[in-house]
Amino acid sequence: MHKSKRLFLKSKRSFRRRLPPIQSGDQIDYRNISLISRFISQQGKILSRRVTRLTLKQQRLITIAIKQARILSLLPFLNNEKHLKKRKSKLVARTAGRRTRTAGRRTRKK
């Protein structure tokens, strides 16, 4: 085989089987927050099956449990604390600037 053809062949990767994060003793339920929180991203989104490596049945149960926990306010719908802090600081700066401008306009009209 020529060297040029070797470059296009895929290298064989070793197949490592990962154990799923849900073990046989774990119960998938909306009250099991420590288990459910492993399958939520930092933004509060439900992670996909490719990321979590769950079976289809487990993913469905996790999704239902997360949605029930959100409705019962055990979990937040969105987790965007960083965005809220940035928005608050911007809003404070904007409103402060508007107050000084409107105060100046009122004095001119009188």
TrEMBL record:
Residue ranges, annotated region (Disordered): 86-110
GO biological process terms held by the UniProt record: translation
UniProt subcellular location: Plastid
SUPFAM superfamilies according to UniProt: Ribosomal protein S18
Entry-linked InterPro entries: Ribosomal_bS18, Ribosomal_bS18_sf
One GO molecular-function entry: structural constituent of ribosome
One cellular component term from this protein's GO annotations in UniProt: plastid
One Pfam family in the UniProt entry: Ribosomal_S18
Keyword list, A-Z: Plastid, Ribonucleoprotein, Ribosomal protein, RNA-binding, rRNA-binding
Superkingdom of origin: Eukaryota
Family indicated by similarity: Belongs to the bacterial ribosomal protein bS18 family.
Entries under PANTHER family matching the protein: 30S RIBOSOMAL PROTEIN S18, SMALL RIBOSOMAL SUBUNIT PROTEIN BS18M
Protein name: Small ribosomal subunit protein bS18c
UniProt source species: Lophopyxis maingayi
